[in-house]
Amino acid sequence: MSGFSFDLSGRKALVTGASSGLGARFGRILANSGAQVALGARRADRLQALAGEIGEQARAVQMDVASEADIIAGYDAAEAAFGTVDTVVANAGVDGAGMIADMPEDEIERTLAINLKGAILTAREGARRMMAAGVERGRIVLIASITAFEPSPGLVAYSASKAGVKQAARSMAREWARAGICVNTISPGYIRTAINDAWFDTDLGKKQVARFPKRRLMGEEGLDAALLFLCSDAAEFVTGSDFVMDDGQTL
Fold first, then answer.
1. Which Pfam families does this UniProt record tie to the protein (predicted)?
2. pLDDT in tens, 205-232
């Protein structure tokens, strides 16, 4: 590789959790950088609207990452549209918020099924297809969180799932290194999204922000550069790494 470029022209990407929030932004960013993008999520109407906004480079792919059958069908649809996916962004997730002493068992199971099992299955199916097709520059990015290594009261199930995502990514990176597939994670800090919007308008939410070194929340754009780097050829020598993008919140 000579020089550095975040141009993703020729790449065929699949983004999960793409119907809103960070996933929708990731889909736009990858497409704007030249990739063809399959937008995966459960809410078909939102996916169709986003795909229409992006244009011919995007396709809506309805899928529930808690179901392996859905994930396989999603990859089938992406391949039918663009060919073998060589760039995967496993972003789908739920917050699983609530004090763990009061959280119902089914909510714990749902959080782990979507955030952890779903990320592993999404990465695994992508890697299987890349290896079968002889893809030599595969890129898999899993979205973790700073809660994976910071004590997070009220987010026990969520933080456990994200810690699992980080370790799973490192282990998958080792398994697939000789296949040319780079597997990395991005651990964002607190960003205002539809999931947490109401919390940061409360007095406790405002106090939390006031404790951050920069006394602010990150903007979604704070993840753009890391995402583009890890999906590009410039990340050839980066695998098994975690990129903490938190605006200094954990300092």
1. adh_short
2. 999 999 999 999 999 999 999 999 999 9
Q: pLDDT (tens digit, 9 = 90+) per residue, 104-150?
A: 999 999 999 999 999 999 999 999 999 999 999 999 999 999 999 99
Q: Total structural domains in the chain?
A: 1
Residue position matching structure tokens 């050839």: 236
Q: Would you name the residues annotated as active-site residues?
A: 158
- Distances in Å between the alpha carbon of 181 and those of 73, 99, 133, 134? 22, 38, 12, 10
Domain extent, residue 44, equals 12-244
Buried b or exposed e, range 47-66, using 16+ CB within 10 angstroms? bbebbeebeebbbbbbbbbb
Q: Please state the rounded mean pLDDT for residues 187-210.
A: 89
User: Which own/partner contact pairs does 223-227 have at CB distance under 8 Å and 24+ positions apart?
Assistant: 223/22, 223/25, 223/26, 223/186, 223/188, 223/191, 224/25, 224/29, 225/6, 226/186, 227/26, 227/29, 227/30, 227/89, 227/141, 227/186
The reply to whether 191 falls in a domain is yes
SS3 53: helix
Q: What is the pTM of this model?
A: 0.95
Q: What is the CATH number of the domain that holds 192?
A: 3.40.50.720
Q: How far is the C-alpha of 161 from the C-alpha of 7, rounded, in Å?
A: 32
pLDDT at res. 3 = 58
